[in-house]
Structures are given as C-alpha cells and as structure tokens.
Design a protein that fits this description.
Order of helices and strands of chain C: HEHHEEEEHEEHEHH
Largest sheet of chain C: 3 strands, mixed
Helix content of chain A: 55-70%
Largest interface: A-B, 39 and 53 residues
Structural class of chain C: alpha+beta
Structural class of chain A: mainly alpha
Number of helices of chain A: 13
Chains: A mainly alpha, B alpha+beta, C alpha+beta
Helix content of chain C: 40-55%
Shape of chain A: globular
Distance between the termini of chain A: 77 Å
Largest sheet of chain A: 2 strands, antiparallel
Strand content of chain A: under 5%
Number of strands of chain C: 8
Shape of chain C: elongated
Distance between the termini of chain C: 113 Å
Strand order of the largest sheet of chain A: 1-2
Number of domains of chain A: 1
Strand content of chain C: 5-15%
CATH architecture of one domain in chain C: 2-Layer Sandwich
Oligomer: heterotrimer
Radius of gyration of chain A: 23 Å
C-alpha cells in the first residue's frame, strides 16, 4: 500500500498515457511530466511568497498579510492579478526584442533545471548519466538573462546594476561547482539519481547522507552560501536593493514581466535547494530507516520547504553585504575553503573506515576555517570593540 | 582612512571645501539622491559626483521642509510657539519643548518646582531612549535587514508613546512643558506604569545588542566607514552622539548640569574609532545610561506642585533682554536664543538645530567612500528634516 | 567574530518568530477596525464645546470672550459675538457665540484653547475617525456640530470632568451665596426705606 502511494504519480502517468496508441506513449509521458512540473512549481512559488511575507512578519512581531482569504492564502492570487493588469511599459529607446526575451530566457532556463532533479523514487523526469553537468550547463542562461535585462533597458543605472549582478553570480558559480565536485568524487558518478542511491543506506537507523560527514557538512555550508548568492537573496541581494543609489536590473520592467523575473528568482531558489537536498541531504531518502514507509516525494518536498524557511530566516535577520565585500568573500574565503574541502573529501575516502578519519577531517576543516576567518577580519581591522566612559 | 592624504593636517583652512581628485579618466557620474528616496530620512537631496564607485563630491541640498518656524514665532505669543517647537524634531518633541521652556525661564528668571524637574528628566530620558532606538532601527533598515531591528525598536517605542499619551494627551506632538514647570501632573498610576515600562527596557537593549553588535556583516559594513576626526568635529560644531563617537567628552548634561542632572549617576560613553559603528554603539550605550537615569528619577521623584503658581499663561511679557537656553537633545545640542523687547511676542527667536550643524560634515565623512556607504554615513548622522529646515 | 555574531542574530529572530505564536508581547498587532485599543483617558484630538442640560443653545457654556481665538496658534477658531445676552449657569447674563467655527483641517490639537478658557467651555474630544469626502466644508465644524453635552465630556474624560464639575459647582455655590447676601441686603434696605419714606 505504501509502495503504491510512493509511486502514485508514476502509476498515474502510466495509466493516463495508456489511453494513447503505443507510438505516442513515451512522448506523452514526457509531456505529462513537463506539465506537472510547470503547474506544480509556480504553485509552490505562490505558497512560498505568502510564507515569506508571513514568516518575515512573525519574525518582526507582526502578522503578515491576512485580509485576502483566510490567513491570507489568496494573497498570491491577488498579487498575480495585479501584475497581470498593470500596464506593460517598455522604454522607447529600449531594445524591444531583448527586453521581451530576457524574462522568458530566465524562466525557461530555470525550468530546464528541474528536469534532472530526482523528486522521488523513479520520479526523475529525464534520467541522464551526467545530470549534474546538465544542471549547471542549463543554469548558465540565468546570468545571461539578467545581463539582457540590464542591457536592453538602455539605462545607465540598470546596466550598472546588471553588471554588478552578473559579476556576483559568476563569482559564486565557481564555489558552487567546486563544493559539488566533492560529492561527485565520493559518490563516483555525475548522475543525480546515483548520488541519491549512494546516500540511501542506513547504519543503526541513521542515514548515510553526506551532510553527516565533515567534508559534507562543510560542503553543504559552502553550497548554501554560494546558492544564496546565486539566487540574489539576502544577504547578497545588493543588485535588487532599493536603498542603494544605483537601480537594479529590473527597474524598467513592469507588470507581468516583472512578475516573471520574480518567478524566475524563486524557481531558481527551488531548483538550487532541490539540488542541495539531492547532493547533501539524501534527496528523497528518509531521515531514519523506520520512517521509510512515508512516500519519498514527501521527503523531497519537505527538505525543499526547509530550505525555503532557511532562506526566509536569513533574509529577515541579516543586513546586506556591499558589492566589493561580497566579491571578496567569494574569492578569498568561500573558494579557498571549497578547494580545501575537495582535498579533505579525498583524504576521507583514502583514510579507511574508522573514527580516525572523522577526527582528522573535522580538525583540518575547523582549523582552516578559523584561520581564514580570523585573517579576513583582522586584515580589515574588524572586530568587537570595548568602549571607555567618562564622567 | 579616506582623505588623510588630500587635506593638510592643520584645520585653519576648514572654510575651504574639501576636494578629492578623481583617479583615472572618464567623466564623473553625477547622481542626485532624493528628495524622493526611501533612505533620506525625509525630503533631502544629496548631489553626489562619483568616480566609478568612489564619492568625489557631495553637496547636501535641503530646505524642502522649511516652514518658517522662526518667523512665525515672532508673530506669536511665547506660549503659542510651544506647539510649534514640537514639530521641529518631530520624533523628540519633549526635548524641544524643554529647551524652549529653559530659554524662556532663563529670560524671566523663573523657578521650576522640583517635581516638575524630575518629570522633565523622566520624559526627556524616555524621549532619548526612543529616539536612539529608532535611529538604530533606521540605520539597520538602510543596510537591508528588511527592517527587523526597526520593528523591534518600534515595538518598544509604542510603549513609551503610550506613556506620553497617558500623561500629555498626545503621542508625538505633546506640547507639555510650560514656562515654570509642566502642564499637568503625573498621577501615581502613571508613575507605576512608567516603572513597568522602564523595567522592560534593558531586555530590549540586550535583544538589539545580541542581534546586531557582533554581527559580522554589520561590522564589515560599518567599521572603518565614515570617519570623523575629533578636531574636525569640534571645529565644525558637531554635538551629541556624533561628537562623543569621535572621542570628545562633551555632554551638556554634565557640562551645564541644567535641571537636576547633577543629581543623577550616569556615565558618558566615548568612541575611539570615530566611524559609523562607533556612532551606532554609542547610541546603544547611551540607551543603557538613559535607563539608569530613569530608574533613579522614578525612584526619587518627590511630591509637590508641577507648575510655578505665579506663572502666567496669558499676557506673558518678559522684560527686555536675551537668553540662550540649551539642552542635550538626543541629536545634539539644541539651543533656543530669544531676544525680548518687552512685548508679548519675541523680537528674535532663533533655534540652533543640531541636525543641520551635524550635517555640515557629511561631505568630509563621505569623500572617498564607496557610494553604497553614503546612505549609511548619512543615516549615522541621525537627522530629522523638521529640525534641519525648521 | 568567526560567524557567531550571525548565529546569535539568527537565534534572536527565531526567538521572536516562535514567541509570536505564544505571547502577546511578541505579536503586538491590533487588527483595526475589528479590534481596537482601549482609548487612553487623557488623549486629545479636536476641540468641542460643552453645554449643560438638554438644550444646547441655552446651556452652552461659551460666553464668546474670544480668548481662545486670540491664543490659538494656527488661528483655526472663528467667533462672532452675539448682540444679546443669555443667562449662564450661575444666572448671570452673558454674551454667547452667534458663530463658532473651528477648521479641524488647520487645528493642530495643541490644546491651548482649553488651557486658556476661563469658563470651562471648550474641551478636547477623542473622536478621530472624521474622514469625509468634502475636504473643505466637511472639515469645518460649526457651533451645532461642536456642541456636545456634559455627559459626553464625563464619558470621555471622567477624571477631568469630575474636577471641572466640582469647580463649577463651587463657583455656582459661591455665586449663589453672594446673590443671596446681596438680595438679603437689598431686602433689608427695602424694608428700611418704607419706614424712612413713611416719615
């Protein structure tokens, strides 16, 4: 019974395509899967937007929106209607074609990333041997679309904002990739399905998720930082900051195109959170072996939701980093630690199975983190201070 | 340090505007920030010339909120100007009232009863607390923390404003101080409510401290930014927390000892690094000192009248003369200079606005800094346009 | 310095988030207009004229002395004195205002009119939901709109109203005593005069 529930979407899709002639069935199956993803993730986006506003509100001792529908559930519908009915202003000097295409490129590129995420047992839309490589390749046009948006607006300030955003995304792309290479090394495959399979074992009821290893934990933290920066979320959201002098890349967009940018950003968050869950948190595997009866897709989406909550939590607490500070942080802190993590992962693999490798790897990572952080802060003469009093 | 190479060490030529040479070729990007801008604390414009990301020139343009306060006062009786002083620094209306009342009391030589002095201190320190909390909240809001510390500050401020409303009748425009005392007496119930509120304030300051003071991102954004050297601060007439964050020990509550401040035990925190982080921390530490004063005042407040019984409300004609009354307002030294010619209206009424005078060093602090920091430096000056423009 | 500042900050926000579900201290929203905060007694919004008794014209305390008009800082009060007199609460004939307009779009709620009024005639109301579609005439209150009974004053500011009532009762008693003494003296004089006139 639980297996049926676990495979319910697979069985449903097989039953539906069974009505079509045999030649059409594979194509129809793929189309059905695509349709499911295109319907599901924007719905999740609506839910997340509401969750964010209410979550931020609760953190700030206030209630979020609660007037539109019970507990404000229909607020995203209201927002969507509003953005649909707003006038679509395109500046006269703007490059019309590029201006139109930029949000489309963003949304398309992000949707393609969902094709390779294993959302449950046998629930990957496209099974590939190098799905991680495909994921990163297909994520590249997101940066292109931001530049297209800034460039086509023919606005000095939008262009500056777009260039800063692209510089930020490129800088954090490298640590993102390097932190995932450690997982590939240990799992021995670029295929996301195989990576999940490698984590789906249990010892004394506890899972073999990579986050529970020293290099996996460090890798997860670095991946999370790089992912937050890739999706332009706080504390790395300077390109979208309103209180800065230079406007953002989406200043000249209004109405539905702006909503598409917003959608693209949140879908990017889902996509990268899904990837993080797959690589480090075991994808669709359950946290304890006795919980294995719960359907696998529930675990995947639960981890996704947890990641969203973490994003919202960070946004509510931390101020923004300045542009040059975030680039410094990427190149001088995150990247060296990510490369060190690669070496530590290799050391882990070759030190055999025992408690020694835990101690050695944790020690190397902890010491290097402390040294790097201390050097960064001291180098800029930053640090807590004490004050003197008079009178 | 930003401008150490471009300026001479001696400051005799401070009247000459500071200059910064742009490096590299290319034209300067001139940006006008404001007056319609989410971070300018009101209607205020800054004409900034940028070389890439560095600020080469900064010209503040204000006057958008000029309401002719000083000239209106020449046509109004002394009592009638009191509600208008509420609207100078509209966040701290009680301290504005106090400074004006002090100036008029100096002009006429009136005595203020002791209970009224205690009430003035209590309300003044409550005002200082909520001003510093809001100032810190707005500074962090501009840094992009989506307003969380601001909401916490306003949560506490609401309690203090409820106290003001219960005593004076209005949350912000209080019109409470009178020449010779306070308008109404505080009941025992109000004093108990005040004690309860004050008992909850240290927890709030600890909360802000834990949330912000050791936050690495905050430290990276504010330490070493917007340095104001003490000699420049003193020469420019900067007062208040900005001056103390530049290390100069000058607090009018200690220097003048106006009212009954010399009865209270409190310290004056001083900064050693003169940057935005120091100004933020000095305000936080001053909040703690205000709590100390409040606890002492609420404990010791005596019974008695709150208004000099011989004081006149109408037909108030001080003898010809002049007086300058100044207090340590939350933003700096707020002074009122009055010249009376014996008539019912003042001959000359002049406000020394601390926000405006603190703003004159904005360019010096911002030269050479990154454009993203200009908003932070401006926020750390803590101005209110009502006071700058009057 | 090593990231623990950020973690401490995250802990604070998490505390506030969790606390907002359990304690009122951490969720201070009052959902107006369904819920309202209890009004504070001393609050002041715009002035109103007090009248005693049931008839607002006869019981209006204002004697059109125009002191509040002179002292009002933004000059939002306009008074026209009447040409005849009517008796006040002690029985003495006084002028009354033929017109008493307050422009509440100008009024800044400073309460100086209340302080300087010698007759306890004008007090501060607590009504603030005064939005109207006509921004000129809708915000210009005339004598009739401003007149409210003393019961209303007692309801919104009970302690103040009690003090004012006590003061007015004492004044009335003093005036009554004076009137009685004067009428006794007049009666004594009248009683004495026929005796002299008869001579």
């Amino acid at each position: 019974m639980m297996e049926t529930l676990d495979q319910i979407f697979v069985l449903l899709s097989r039953w539906l395509v069974g009505f079509l002639p045999a030649g059409w069935q594979t194509a129809a199956g793929v189309v059905l899967g695509v349709a499911a993803i295109v319907c599901l993730f924007p719905a999740l986006f609506a839910l997340t937007v509401l969750l964010e506003r209410k979550g931020l509100g609760r953190m700030q001792n206030r209630i979020g929106p609660n007037r539109v529908g019970p507990f404000g559930i229909l607020q995203p519908v209201a927002d969507g209607l509003k953005s649909l009915t707003k006038e679509d202003i395109v500046p006269t000097r703007a490059d019309g074609v590029v201006h139109f295409l930029a949000p489309l490129v963003l949304v398309t590129a992000v949707f393609m990333g969902f094709a390779v995420l294993p959302m449950g047992r046998n629930m990957t839309l496209v099974k590939m041997d190098a799905s991680l490589l495909f994921y990163f390749a297909v994520g590249a046009p997101t940066e292109l679309s931001i530049f297209m948006a800034g460039w086509s607006s023919r606005n000095k300030y939008s262009l500056l904002g777009a260039m800063r955003a692209v510089a930020q995304m490129i800088s954090y792309e490298v640590p993102l990739l390097v932190s995932t290479v450690a997982v590939v090394m240990i799992a021995g495959s670029l295929s996301l399905d195989k990576i999940v399979e490698a984590q789906n074992h249990y010892t004394w009821g506890l899972p073999h998720w990579y986050i529970f290893t020293p290099w996996g934990f460090a890798g997860f933290v670095l991946f999370a930082i790089a992912a937050t920066a890739e999706t332009n979320r706080s504390p790395f959201d300077l390109p979208e900051g309103e209180s800065e002098l230079v406007a953002g890349y989406h200043t000249e967009y209004s109405g539905f195109k702006f909503a598409l940018f917003f959608l693209g950003e949140y879908l990017g968050m889902f996509s990268v959170a899904g990837l993080g869950a797959t690589l480090f948190l075991g994808g669709w595997s359950a946290p304890f072996s006795f919980l294995g009866w719960v359907p696998s897709w529930i675990w995947f989406f639960a981890k996704l939701l947890l990641a969203m909550c973490a994003f919202i939590w960070l946004r509510g607490t931390l101020p923004r980093l300045r542009q040059d500070q975030l680039m410094n942080f990427a190149w001088k802190f995150v990247l060296p630690l990510a490369m060190l993590n690669l070496m530590v992962a290799a050391l882990w693999h070759f030190l055999g199975h025992g408690w020694a490798r835990w101690v050695i790897c944790s020690a190397i990572l902890a010491v290097s983190y402390v040294l790097l952080a201390w050097a960064e802060m001291r180098g800029r003469r930053l640090g807590p201070r004490s004050y003197r009093y008079a009178g | 340090m930003a401008v150490a190479d471009n300026k001479t060490e001696k400051l005799e030529g401070w009247n000459r505007p500071p200059v910064m040479e742009p490096e590299g070729e290319g034209e300067l990007l001139e940006v006008a920030t404001g007056p319609h801008h989410p971070s300018t604390h009101g209607v205020f414009r800054m004409d900034v010339a940028l070389d890439g990301e560095r600020v080469i020139r900064l010209k503040p343009v204000f006057g958008y909120l000029h309401r002719n306060h000083e000239m209106l006062a020449e046509g109004m009786s002394y009592l009638g100007s009191m509600p208008f002083t509420d609207r100078l620094d509209y966040i701290c209306s009680l301290t504005n009232n106090w400074a004006y009342a002090l100036a008029v009391e100096k002009l006429t030589g009136q005595e203020v009863p002791e209970r009224a002095e205690y009430l003035r201190v209590i309300l003044g320190e409550l005002t200082r607390f909520q001003n510093h909390a809001s100032s810190i909240g707005f500074l962090i809001q501009e840094m992009g923390a989506s307003g969380t510390p601001l909401m916490y500050a306003f949560r506490e401020r609401e309690k203090i404003l409820d106290l003001f409303e219960a005593l004076t009748g209005a949350r912000m425009m209080v019109n409470y101080m009178r020449f010779g005392g306070c308008r109404v007496d505080a009941s025992a119930a109000w004093l108990d409510a005040a004690r309860k509120v004050v008992a909850g304030l240290p927890g709030f300051v600890d909360e802000m401290d834990r949330l912000l003071s050791t936050n690495e991102i905050l430290m990276a954004r504010t330490q070493g930014i917007g340095i104001l050297r003490p000699e420049l601060a003193v020469n420019a007439g900067v007062t208040g927390p900005m001056l103390r964050a530049s290390g100069v020990n000058y607090d009018i509550r200690k220097v003048d000892g106006y009212g009954i401040y010399n009865r209270f035990n409190f310290r004056v925190p001083l900064g050693d690094h003169w940057d935005v982080y120091d100004r933020y921390m000095i305000r936080l530490l001053e909040m703690r000192e205000s709590i100390k004063i409040l606890e002492q005042a609420l404990k010791d407040i005596p019974a008695g009248p709150v208004m000099d019984p011989k004081a006149k409300l109408r037909g108030f004609r001080p003898k010809p003369g002049e007086a300058y009354g100044r207090i340590e307002a939350p933003k700096g030294e707020l002074g009122f200079y009055l010249i009376s010619d014996g008539g019912p209206n003042p001959y000359r009424y002049r406000v020394r606005p601390p926000s405006l005078i603190n703003l004159t060093v904005l360019e010096d602090m911002a030269l050479g800094e990154n454009v993203a920091d200009v908003v932070l430096i401006f926020g750390s000056v803590d101005i209110v346009l009502g006071e700058v423009d009057r | 310095m090593l990231g623990e500042g950020i973690l401490k900050g995250l802990a604070e926000t998490a505390k506030n988030f969790a606390g907002s579900f359990v304690s009122a201290e951490r969720l201070t929203t009052v959902q107006y207009p369904e819920e309202r905060i209890a009004p504070i007694e001393a609050t002041r919004d715009f002035p109103f004229l007090v009248y005693d008794g049931a008839d607002w014209e006869a019981g209006l305390r204002c004697v059109a002395c125009q002191i509040c008009e002179k002292e009002c800082p933004p000059k939002c009060i306009y008074i026209e004195k009447s040409t005849d007199k009517k008796p006040d609460f002690t029985g003495k004939p006084q002028f009354y205002p033929a017109r008493f307009d307050i422009d509440i779009s100008v009024c800044m709620s400073c309460q100086i009119c209340v302080e300087v009024c010698p007759f306890e005639a004008i007090k501060m109301d607590t009504e603030f939901e005064l939005s109207t579609e006509d921004r000129f005439a809708g915000l210009l209150f005339d004598r009739k709109q401003l007149a409210k009974p003393n019961e209303h004053y007692r309801k919104i500011h009970p302690a103040e109203a009690a003090a004012v009532d006590a003061r007015l009762a004492a004044e009335k008693a003093k005036a009554g005593a004076r009137a009685k003494a004067a009428s006794d003296a007049a009666a004594a004089k009248a009683a004495a005069r026929p005796a002299e006139g008869g001579d």
